[in-house]
Structure formats: C-alpha cells, structure tokens
Design a protein that fits this description.
This protein is an all-alpha fold. The N terminus is likely disordered. It starts with 8 loop residues before the first helix and ends with a helix. The chain is built from 34 helices and no strands. The chain is globular.
Length: about 550
C-alpha cells in the first residue's frame, strides 16, 4: 500500500529528502577544498569527519570523488566503509569509482562489503556493471543485499534486458535473472524466447521462475502459452503455469478441463490459483466468477498463511464486478487477519466508488487497519471523495503513520477533498513541520480550493528545510495558478532550490519551474546552466524539459 505514496511525480522527487535533508543540514561550513585536504589527515577522527561531511554534500562534492576512491584501499576498514558510503551519497557523479567499489565485494570486513554494494546501487553505473556484480553476489550471505541489487537492475528497465538475456546463460544467476525479468515485465519482451528455453531446464525452481516471468509479459508472451500449458502436467510447475495462464488471459482448449479439475483439488494453494485463473479468462461467466470469488474469500481465512496471502492477491487481480463482490467482501475483510486484509484491500480499491462505504466502516471499526485503509482510499483518488470527512478527522491523529496516510489520501482525492482544508491547516499549525511535507503536498493537489491554506504554504516556503520550501513553492502556484503575483513569490524559492546540494531538491525545483511555464521566464538562465553543468543526469533532463516550458 505504501508504494502508492510516490505516484505524484514531484512528491517522488522529494519524499527521500525527508530522511536525507537532516543529515545534510548538519554538515559543517568547511570549504570543499579544506575537507578534501583533511582526507589525508593523520588524525583518524578528523579524517573520518571529512569523509562523512563530503558525503553529506551529495553531488556538490563531485570534486572529491578521486580522493575518496583512493581511500577505498585504506588499511583501516572503517575508512574504507565510510569512503564507500560517501561515494554512494555523491551519486551518479561518483561513477568513476564503480570499479574500485566492486573490488570491495571480496573485502574481509562485512561492513565494508555492504557499504560498497549500497554505494554501487546508489551510483547506478548501469546494467553492464550491475549484472556481473549481481552474478558475483548470488552466493552472498545477506539476501537483503541481493534484493537491493535486484531492485537496482530492475529499475534500469528495458535497457537492462540485453545483458539479462546473456546472463540467463549463467547457471548460477539464472534463477534471479528470471526474477528481475518478471519485475521489469512487458518492457522485457525481448527475453521471451530465452525464457521459453528455460521451461525445459532440469531444475524445477528455474522452470517455475521462467513461467512466472513469462506471465508478466502480457501480450508479448502469448506465443508461449502452449509451452506454459505443458507445464500443467508437472507437479513442480502446475501452480505457476496456472497462474501465468491467468495473467495472460489464455487457456488452450485442451488445458481447460485440467484447470477446472485442479480448482477442486485438495491442494488448497493450487485450488485458489485455478479458481482465479478461470475467473480471469472467463469474466463474462458470472456464475463462475461468483463461485471463484466465494472460494477465494473462503481461502483468505485458511490456516495456511501462504494460502491466505495468495487468495487475497488473486482476488485483487480479478476484474471488478461490484454487484457480486461487495456483499462477499463486506464480511471477508473484517474477518481476515491483518496481513491478509492488507492484500485484500487492493481488491476493494479496484471496485471503485461502490467500495467506499465498506472501507469507511472498516476505517471506523478496525483500528489495526487504519493505515492500510487510508492508503487504499488514496489509491482510489477522486472516487473516494465520500471519505473526505472521515479522513479529515485523522490528519491530527496521535499515530503519525495514520495521520500521514490520511493526509496523503486527501491529497490524492484532490479538489473533491476541499472540505478537509481547515483540518489540514489546523494540523500544520499544531504540528509545525512534523508532518509538513505531506500536508503541503495535499494542499497543492487540492489546488485553488485550498486557498485558505495560503498562509501555511507561505510559511513553509521560508523553511530551512529546502525540500519543504521547494514543494511549498510548487503548491503555492497550484493554489494560485496563472498568478504573476504568486509566481513572484514562488520563483525565487525554486531558483534557490536549483542551487541546493541534494540532487532530488534540484530536480524537484526544475520540474516545478517547468510547471509555471512563461511565469518562470526569469529562471531560464539558471535552467540553462543546470541543463549543461549539473552533475546528475536526472537533474539535467528535468532542467532541459522545463527550459522548453518557460521559454514557450
């Protein structure tokens, strides 16, 4: 559910700053050259402080990459680990250090190895560097490290696919390469032929992961349906094959009876998946749909937590049918355990506006689910407008997680949540900057209807937290769209944001200036400078795009 918090582009650029801005704010005022000079200090305390302070400066410390890279060979493990961590904080500008960082993967000190991996993930040197790195990590003792590297590769999307296809040939990496291709999804369609070959691998776990990857490819993998259907005869792959056929929306005629029989299987996991696949492939069959949903809902109360989880997720994947689903869900979500309900709420969100009364009832009576329900309502956007008053009551909740989710949900509901503006303003006055990022974000999404929040937004624009100041300036313009007077107050804040040390702040400021169009014409020179000279590619791209807008 919490992944839904980053759907707004500007908020995506800023949310990470809530954590990182504090560290950056504590950096001393020593000049960059002074800090670089201290890297060679014989005083280990002064040396380590300099390393940390350079990292806190982020991309602004790009000039320190070479001397920090040299410290990766230092005899002291603490120095090597700190240097790796600071290079990671510098980000893409530290890409020249990638080779030396990779050499630390064999370091005897686990902390050094971990920091090297984290730095490489932050630097993102590209799939050509990351995939060989991952192959070397397939036997790493820390699965958390593996997962983070996997995620970094998947984020490269289509660009990583050629290297991944080649990596499928490495027996040690095949399993995890299939996992990454599944996460990339349809953008990895070029890998379909290579994945089909893996359906004949002698290892059952490889066959399963290849099938699941094909199932994530949408129409690009339809040609693989006959081969996937053959896996229904294999006890190791029957569940995965059934699930994949459901994802692809195709069941060969000669496989239909097998899946119908499996829906009645004593293997509850296979039964759950079979019911859902049949309902997905035959959405016009209301009787089948009702039978599948009732069976799946029964299984979210199963003693086996794996069965409960897959039942809930499969229900979320079914096409919406409110007239059938609402009566069944009203009881099922309340009776489910917290983990299962967490998955099941996604199915309610897919039902849209008809599900709001159920969600409001759960919000009021199931305290343990308030965070998840508020997030679900946010995912529904304007369709959840009827929940505005209930969410407004939670924006000052003593549980900060509940308050934050409620605020963000109101922001995603947008202008229809205008009646919550007084509550948002009151929460800002009471909490100060405690939850200010979320509150300002919500007021911005509500737009002109949030004009009463203008004083709070102006106050936030003066904040020492530059991430907050930037999002407040953007919000101020959303509340006063097209206003030259408002732009006169917002543009200077955004221009200052373009000069901040953290690349996320610079990127967000550039994007916000682009939203203003010609009203931000005075920022053209600064955007041109960022387009040419910023050390982070994402910032340069954002500046280039916004430059076109302000010159329009």
């Amino acid at each position: 559910m919490t992944q839904s918090l980053t759907k707004n582009g500007l908020f995506l650029a800023l949310i990470g700053l809530i954590v990182s801005a504090g560290a950056a704010g504590h950096a001393k005022d020593s000049s960059l050259q002074e800090l670089i000079g201290k890297l060679q200090s014989s005083d280990p305390v002064a040396q380590c402080e300099a390393i940390d302070q350079l990292g806190a400066r982020g991309a602004a410390a790009a000039e320190a990459v070479a001397p920090l890279t040299a410290l990766l060979k230092d005899a002291a493990p603490d120095v090597r680990a700190r240097a790796a961590k600071s290079l990671g904080k510098i980000g893409a500008a530290a890409s020249p250090a990638a080779r030396e960082l990779a050499s630390l993967l064999q370091d005897d000190n686990p902390a050094v190895c971990r920091q090297a991996v984290e730095a490489l993930i932050a630097i993102r040197p590209g799939p050509k560097a990351m995939i060989p790195l991952f192959i070397r990590l397939t036997k790493h003792s820390d699965p958390g490290v593996q997962l983070r590297v996997l995620h970094a590769i998947a984020e490269s999307g289509e660009a990583a696919v050629p290297e991944l296809i080649e990596a499928l040939k490495d027996d040690k990496a095949t399993y995890w390469v299939c996992v990454v291709l599944r996460d990339i999804g349809p953008a990895a369609k070029a890998a379909v032929p290579a994945l089909v070959e893996k359906l004949h691998d002698s290892r059952p776990d490889i066959r399963v992961q290849a099938i699941l990857a094909l199932g994530a490819m949408d129409d690009a993998a339809v040609s693989a349906v006959p081969e996937i259907a053959k896996a229904l005869k294999d006890e190791h792959t029957v569940s995965a094959a059934t699930f994949a056929l459901g994802q692809l929306g195709k069941i060969p005629a000669d496989a239909e009876q097998t899946i119908r029989s499996n829906a009645k299987s004593d293997d509850r996991f296979l039964s759950v998946v079979s019911h859902c696949t049949l309902a997905r492939v035959h959405p016009e069959d209301k009787g089948l749909y009702r039978e599948a949903m009732q069976q799946l809902v029964t299984n979210i109360e199963d003693d086996d937590p794996h069965v409960r989880a897959v039942a809930a997720m499969e229900l979320a994947a079914l096409p919406p049918a409110p007239e059938i689903a609402i009566p069944i869900w009203e009881k099922a979500v309340k009776d489910a355990d917290t983990i299962t309900a967490f998955h099941a709420l996604g199915a309610l969100a897919a039902l849209g506006k008809p599900a709001v009364p159920i969600l409001l009832d759960i919000l009021e009576n199931e305290v343990a689910l308030r965070v998840e329900v508020a997030s679900t309502l946010g995912e529904m956007g304007s369709a959840a407008a009827a929940a505005t008053d209930a969410l407004a009551k939670l924006v000052a909740d003593e549980d900060l997680n509940v308050a934050t989710e409620a605020v963000l949900a109101l922001g995603k509901i947008g202008p229809a949540a205008k009646s919550a503006v007084p509550a948002l303003c009151a929460a800002f006055e009471k909490e100060g900057e405690k939850n200010a990022h979320a509150i300002i974000f919500a007021l911005g999404n509500i737009g002109p209807e949030a004009a009463a929040g203008g004083p709070q937004v102006l106050e936030a624009m003066k904040s020492k937290d530059k991430a907050l100041a930037v999002i407040a300036a953007s919000t101020f313009m959303r509340i006063h769209p097209g206003s030259a007077e408002a732009a006169a107050k917002a543009v200077p804040v955004l221009l200052a944001g373009l000069a901040e040390s953290l690349p996320e702040t610079r990127k967000a400021a550039a994007e916000a200036l682009g939203e203003l169009g010609p009203l931000a014409r005075q920022a053209a020179a600064a955007l041109q400078e960022a387009k040419k000279k910023d050390g982070v590619k994402a910032v340069r791209e954002a500046a280039a795009q916004s430059l076109k807008s302000v010159r329009r």
